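Model it.
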Amino acid sequence: MGEVDQKELLLYIDECFTKILEKNDVLQVIAMDENYDPVRSTMHDRQINLDYTGLFGSLLMKARRAVRLMDANDTLLEIRVRTNKHETFITPDHHVTFITIQNPIDRI
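Modeled.
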């Protein structure tokens, strides 16, 4: 991937945060860089941010590898992890990945 203008990247992250947080059921959002370090977060505890980005970053790496093994021409778009209490979306984007934690929404 080519070099990214940090100012443009931060503006993009801010814009995405605004759009994500407009959703009613969103509880937390974390943006992490290509090294799985938190860039911006709604969580105030740095250690929790590092735990989330480290664990979900590892899951993201493994899921990407699994997708490549299934079809080398395919691309991972999103991972959804749902529990009884929460639903987490991991959405990789060119130079940043968003982790969105929300209340589960039952769709019928």
